[in-house]
Write a structure and sequence with these properties.
The complex is a heterodimer of chains A (443) and B (343). Helix content of chain A is 73%, strand content 5%. Chain A contains 15 helices and eight strands. In chain A, strands 1-2 form a two-stranded antiparallel sheet. A two-stranded antiparallel ribbon of chain A has the order 3-6. A two-stranded antiparallel ribbon of chain A has the order 4-5. The N and C termini of chain A lie far apart (60 Å). Chain B is mainly α. Chain B has a single domain, classed as Formate dehydrogenase/DMSO reductase fold (Up-down Bundle). A two-stranded antiparallel ribbon of chain B has the order 1-2. In chain B, helix 1 packs across helix 8 and helix 4 runs antiparallel to helix 5. The chains are: A mainly alpha (443), B mainly alpha (343). The interface between A and B is large, with 69 and 70 residues.
C-alpha cells in the first residue's frame, strides 16, 4: 500500500483515539470546576460528590490521555519529519508553551486528587481551576498549530528554504481566533453532554432513592445549562468559521458544501453526495442563496466552486458528509438542550418523562461523534496539503517504511485500551455507586 | 558560547532531568510490583505512594524533551524520527501500556495484582530501550549514503556487545536510582524496615551499575574513535564522577543517628551529581555531532529568531512552574500527613 496513505492512517487513528480523551479532559475539568464553585456557594454537598466522582472518572481518562498524547507528540516527528522541520523553525512556540500548560495541569491534578483532604476549600477550588485552565490552554495552543496549518503565516519560502521567520506572526495566524474558540467551545459541549448522558441514564433506572434521583437531576440540569450555552455559542462561531473559510480556504469550503460552480446566490446543500461528473450534489436538500449568505453575509456574495481549482488540489469529496454530520449533531444538541431546559423551567417539579430521557442519554455519544467527524473533516479537508499552499502531505511524510506493521500494532493497542478503559470505568463505578458516596458525605 | 551550544546545553539539562526522574519513576513501578508479589506490602505501598502523584509529571518531562528538540534542532528531530521510527514506536507502545495499566490497577482492586505486573514489567524495559539508542547516535550502526536514505543496520546492532552493555546499564541504573530514592523516602515515612529493604537493594545494585557503566564505555570506544580524544580531554569530569559515586555509595554505610546505618539523602544527592558529571562529560565528548558523522548541532539548528523566543519562553515557563513544583514537593515529599499516612 501507498506509504503516505499508511502514514495518514496511522496518524489519523492515533489522533482519533487521543482526541476522545483530550476533549473529555478539557470538558470534564470545566464541569468539575463549576461543581466545586456551586458547592461553595450553595453549600450543597451533592455538588461535592459530583466533583469527586467526575474527578475519579477524569483521572482514569487522563491515564489514557497522557500516554496517547505522548504518542501523538512523538509520532509527529516519526511520521511527518518534513513537516516537523518547518514546525521547528516557524511554529515551535505554541508547542513549547503547551508543555507548561501541561505541567500545570499534571501538577495541580495530583495536588487536587492526592492532597484534597489537606487543602482549604479555597485552595482546592484554585487547584481544580488551574487543572481546568491547564487543560483548556493545552487545547488552545495545539489548536493554534492546527490553525496555522490551514492559514500559514510568519515566514517566507525562498527557493525552497524557510526565511524571514516571525514566530509571533505564526502564532497569531489569521484563523487562530475562530478555530481555537470552536475547539474549546465544542470540547466544553462534549464534556457537558457526556456527563448529561450518564445522569439521564441513571434517572432511567428504577428503584433509586429520592436522594439519588435528586443528585442526578442536579447533575443533569447543570450539564444541560453548560451544554446549551456552549451549543449556542458554537452555532455563532460556526458562522464565523464559514466566513474564515470563505476568505482564506475557499477550496475547503467548496468541498464541505459540495459546490462545483463559482456563483452568487450559492445554495446550501444539506446531505446528498457530491458528484464530480454531474457537477452537483445528488440527493440532498438545497436551500437557495443560503451558502452565499452564510459565507459572505449577503445572498449576492460570490462563492468559489471546486471547478476553480485544479483537480489535484481538491480534498476528497466525502468531507461533505463529515461536515454535514458535524453540523447536524451540533444543531440537534442545541435543540435538545434548549427543549430540556425549557421543560425544567416551565415545570420545575415535574420529572422528565422516559421518552425525553432517552435522547438525552444519546447526547454524549452524539457529541463525541461530532468531535470526531469535525476533526476528520478539518484535517481531510486540508488535503492534499499538510501546510496549506506550502507543503504537500506527500512531501511531509516519512520515507522509512515498515508503516503497515506499525499501523497494525498501534490500532490493536488502541482497540484494547478502548475496551479496557470502558471496563475499568464500569467496574469502578459499579463497585462504588453514588449511594455509597452520598452516605459517606452524609447528604 | 554560541547559540547552538546554548541550545544543546538546555537539551542536555532536560535529558538529564528526564533520565533521573524517569529512572526513578519506572524503577519505583518495578519495586511496587516486585514487593506486591513478595507480599512485602509496606515496601510496595511506599513505592506506590511516591508514584501516584508523580508519574504524570515525570511523563511531561519526556514530552518536554521531544518538543525542545523539535524547536531547537528541527533537523535532528526529523532525522532521528526517520531513522529510529521502530525503536521509538516500541518505546511509545511500552510507555502507553505502562501508564494506562498503572491507572487501571489503581482503579480496580480486584485485578490490581495482574495489572500491576503488566505495568511494572513494561516500565522496566523503557529506560533500557532508551539507553540502547545512545550507541546508535555515535554512528557505525547506520547505513550512510547507501541508497536514497539512511537506515538502521539492525544486524550490526544486535550482534554488537555495546548494545547489551547499554541495556544492562539502563536496567541497573533505573533499579539503583529508584532503590536509593525509595530508601530515602522510607526514612521520610519513618519506616526503618522498608528503608532496610531498599538499602539492601541499593547495596548490590551500586557496584553492578558502576560495572555496567565501565563496560558500556569500553565496548563503545571501538565504535566511537572520534569521541575518545574528547573524552580524554575532560577526564577530570569522569574522575569527579567516580569520586561522587564513592562518596554516595559510602554514605550508605555512614552513621545516621537512627537504628540503622546509612545517610540516604546524601547518597541520593551524590549519585545524582555523579550521573550529572558523567553524562555531561559524555555529552560534551559527543559534540558537535548529534549523529556522527552526518548531523552536527549547527546543521540541525533552528531559525535564530525562533531560538531567541524559545529561550524567553523557557525562562518565563520555568518562572511560573518552579513555585508549582515547590508546592508539589512540599505536599508529596515532605508533608508528614501524606508521606507517613497509614495505608
Amino acid at each position: 500500500m501507498d506509504e503516505v496513505l499508511l502514514a495518514r492512517m496511522l496518524f489519523g487513528s492515533s489522533m482519533a483515539f487521543h482526541i476522545i480523551f483530550a476533549t473529555l479532559g478539557v470538558g470534564i475539568t470545566l464541569m468539575i470546576f463549576i461543581a466545586e464553585i456551586i458547592r461553595a456557594i450553595k453549600k450543597d454537598d451533592h455538588y461535592g460528590v459530583m466533583a469527586k466522582r467526575w474527578t475519579k472518572g477524569f483521572a482514569i481518562l487522563l491515564g489514557v490521555a497522557i500516554p496517547s498524547g505522548t504518542i501523538v507528540g512523538v509520532m509527529l516527528s516519526l511520521l511527518w519529519p518534513g513537516y516537523m522541520e518547518i514546525v521547528g523553525r516557524v511554529i515551535a512556540l505554541p508547542f513549547q508553551i503547551e508543555i507548561f500548560a501541561f505541567f500545570l495541569e499534571a501538577v495541580f491534578m495530583s495536588i487536587y486528587v492526592y492532597a484534597a483532604d489537606r487543602l482549604t476549600n479555597t485552595m482546592r477550588i484554585i487547584s481544580v481551576g488551574l487543572v481546568a485552565m491547564g487543560a483548556t490552554a493545552s487545547a488552545v495552543l495545539i489548536t493554534d498549530a492546527h490553525a496555522w496549518m490551514n492559514t500559514p503565516a510568519g515566514f517566507d519560502v525562498v527557493d525552497g528554504t524557510i526565511t524571514n521567520v516571525s514566530p509571533w506572526d505564526a502564532v497569531f495566524n489569521p484563523s487562530v481566533g475562530v478555530t481555537v474558540l470552536h475547539v474549546v467551545s465544542t470540547a466544553y459541549m462534549a464534556g457537558a453532554f457526556v456527563i448529561g448522558s450518564v445522569a439521564a441514564f441513571m434517572l432511567l433506572k428504577k428503584n433509586r432513592s429520592e436522594n439519588e434521583r435528586s443528585y442526578h437531576k442536579k447533575g443533569l440540569t447543570l450539564a444541560l445549562i453548560v451544554g446549551a450555552a456552549m451549543s449556542l455559542y458554537t452555532s455563532v462561531n460556526g458562522h464565523d468559521t464559514a466566513k474564515m473559510l470563505y476568505e482564506y480556504l475557499p477550496v475547503k469550503l467548496a468541498a464541505a458544501e459540495g459546490l462545483f460552480e463559482t456563483q452568487d446566490n450559492a445554495p446550501l446543500a444539506i446531505f446528498g453526495i457530491p458528484d464530480p461528473e454531474r457537477g452537483e450534489v445528488v440527493g440532498g436538500i438545497e436551500i437557495p442563496g443560503m451558502l452565499s449568505w452564510l459565507a459572505s453575509g449577503s445572498t449576492d456574495g460570490v462563492v468559489q466552486g471546486l471547478n476553480d481549482f485544479p483537480r489535484e488540489e481538491w480534498p476528497p469529496l466525502f468531507v461533505h458528509t463529515l461536515f454535514n454530520v458535524m453540523v447536524g449533531i451540533g444543531f440537534t444538541l442545541l435543540g435538545l438542550s434548549f427543549a430540556a431546559l425549557f421543560w425544567r423551567f416551565v415545570w420545575p417539579r415535574k420529572e422528565f418523562p422516559k421518552w425525553a430521557l432517552v435522547p438525552l442519554v444519546a447526547g454524549g455519544p452524539l457529541a463525541m461523534i461530532g468531535i470526531e467527524t469535525g476533526w476528520i473533516f478539518s484535517c481531510t479537508g486540508r488535503q492534499p496539503w499538510t501546510i496549506y499552499g506550502v507543503q504537500l502531505t506527500a512531501e511531509a511524510a516519512t520515507e522509512s517504511g515498515n508503516l503497515g506493521f506499525l499501523f497494525f500494532l498501534f490500532v490493536t493497542l488502541y482497540a484494547t485500551l478502548l475496551v479496557l478503559t470502558a471496563l475499568v470505568l464500569k467496574f469502578y463505578f459499579g463497585r462504588n455507586p453514588v449511594a455509597n458516596d452520598l452516605k459517606k458525605a452524609d447528604v | 558560547m554560541t547559540e547552538p551550544y546554548i541550545a544543546i546545553t538546555i537539551i542536555w539539562v532536560f535529558l538529564f532531568v528526564y533520565a533521573i526522574a524517569g529512572s526513578i519513576d519506572f524503577g519505583a513501578g518495578f519495586w511496587a510490583m516486585y514487593y506486591t508479589r513478595k507480599d512485602n506490602t509496606e515496601a510496595s505501598v511506599i513505592a506506590n505512594r511516591y508514584l501516584s502523584p508523580s508519574w504524570e509529571v515525570t511523563n511531561v518531562f519526556l514530552v518536554l524533551l521531544v518538543i525542545a528538540l523539535v524547536g531547537f534542532f528541527p533537523g535532528a528531530a526529523s532525522y532521528l524520527g526517520t531513522l529510529m521510527i521502530l525503536p521509538f514506536s516500541l518505546v511509545l507502545i511500552l510507555l502507553t501500556i505502562r501508564g494506562t495499566f498503572m491507572i487501571y490497577a489503581f482503579s480496580s482492586k480486584k485485578y490490581s495484582r495482574m495489572l500491576t505486573i503488566i505495568s511494572g514489567t513494561t516500565g522496566l524495559f523503557i529506560p533500557a530501550l532508551l539507553v540502547a539508542t545512545l550507541p546508535i547516535a555515535i554512528g557505525g550502526f547506520v547505513s550512510m549514503g547507501e541508497g536514497t536514505r539512511d537506515y538502521l543496520l539492525f544486524d550490526r546492532i544486535f550482534t554488537s556487545p555495546t548494545l547489551y552493555t547499554h541495556v544492562g546499564f539502563g536496567l541497573s541504573t533505573e533499579l539503583f536510582l529508584s532503590a536509593l530514592l525509595l530508601a530515602d523516602y522510607s526514612r521520610e515515612a519513618k519506616s526503618e524496615q522498608t528503608y532496610l529493604v531498599y538499602r539492601r537493594n541499593a547495596l548490590w545494585l551500586g557496584p553492578v551499575t558502576l560495572l555496567f557503566a565501565v563496560a558500556a564505555t569500553f565496548t563503545l570506544l571501538p565504535e566511537a574513535g572520534w569521541m575518545v580524544d574528547n573524552m580524554a580531554s575532560v577526564w577530570y569530569l569522569f574522575a569527579l564522577s567516580l569520586a561522587a559515586f564513592l562518596i554516595g555509595y559510602g554514605a550508605l554505610f555512614m552513621k545516621s543517628g537512627r537504628e540503622n546505618p546509612g545517610r540516604a539523602r546524601l547518597a541520593v544527592i551524590m549519585i545524582v551529581i555523579q550521573f550529572g558529571l558523567a553524562s555531561f562529560g559524555y555529552g560534551f565528548s559527543h559534540m558537535p555531532y548529534i549523529l556522527y558523522p552526518d548531523l552536527t548541532i549547527q546543521d540541525a539548528f533552528t531559525d535564530p529568531a525562533m531560538f531567541r523566543w524559545l529561550l524567553a519562553g523557557y525562562g518565563a515557563g520555568l518562572a511560573i512552574l518552579v513555585p508549582a513544583f515547590v508546592v508539589f514537593w512540599r505536599l508529596f515529599m515532605k508533608d508528614k500527613r501524606y508521606v507517613q499516612a497509614e495505608k
